[in-house]
Design a protein that fits this description.
The complex is a heterodimer. By secondary structure, chain A is mainly beta. Chain A is built from no helices and eleven strands. Classes of the chains: A mainly beta, B mainly beta. At the A-B interface, strand 4, strand 5, strand 9 and strand 10 of A face strand 4, strand 5, strand 9 and strand 10 of B.
Chain lengths: 112, 111
């Protein structure tokens, strides 16, 4: 089993729909992150969390919300999806002693 | 605003060539510079550089950080088609432990 699991792997949704992307990890890491990747723009940080009570906005949080249900679970929601949220979304984890991230396999989201 | 810039954005070479990828950064509270390789989906970790002037090597790949010039390079010698990928560099921000990514360099190795 993967250390960081994202579901779904692919999703097509309509404009205006609510959608949730889920991330779970077995690494035991305390820090979790959501990034989106667009061609030519690299990865940009949406939200990050240091523990279940600590949620922080990243550089592009507008239109997104998150929930840290447990240390191992961090979900990203699009309350009302729009086409420019079409992207590849990555969840990642790290801890205070391991500064390298562990990435999930990504969720490819298409909003039509 | 924290910023990481990579160059070139795209590079096409022949198998066996040597390539150098560049990364420059302007961030507050810099801790380290990381390199990742992205082939199909998830980026995979290559190097983390914290000290200036110390080269890290892994097989045909090597990387070095210059904290005076706020930059890093990734070298790949004797390239192979399997090196074709997007190479991402990212600056790790102290405290928040956020990674700020560059745009990536798409490297294509032709046989």
């Amino acid at each position: 089993d993967a250390d960081v699991t994202q579901t779904p792997r692919n999703r097509i949704t309509k404009t205006g729909k609510r959608i949730m992307l889920e991330c779970s990890q077995t690494k035991g890491h305390d820090r979790m992150y959501w990034y989106r990747q667009d061609p030519g723009l690299g990865l940009r940080l949406i939200y990050y969390s240091f523990d279940v009570k600590d949620i922080n906005k990243g550089e592009i949080s507008d239109g997104y919300s998150v929930s840290r249900q447990a240390q191992a679970k961090f979900s990203l929601s699009l309350e009302s999806a729009i086409p420019n949220q079409t992207a590849l979304y990555f969840c990642a984890t790290s801890n205070s002693s391991n500064y390298g991230y562990t990435f999930g396999s990504g969720t490819r989201l298409t909003v039509v | 605003e924290d910023k990481v810039v990579q160059s070139p954005l795209s590079l096409v070479v022949h198998e066996g060539d040597t390539v150098t990828l560049n990364c420059s950064y302007e961030v507050t509270n810099f801790r380290s510079l990381l390199w990742y390789k992205q082939e199909k989906k998830a980026p995979t970790f290559l190097f983390m550089l914290t000290s200036s002037g110390i080269e890290k090597k892994s097989g045909r790949l090597s990387s070095i950080l210059d904290k005076k010039e706020l930059s890093s390079i990734l070298n790949i010698t004797a390239t192979q088609t399997g090196d074709s990928a997007i190479y991402l560099c990212a600056a790790l921000i102290q405290g928040a432990q956020k990674l700020v990514f560059g745009q990536g360099t798409r490297l294509t190795i032709n046989p």
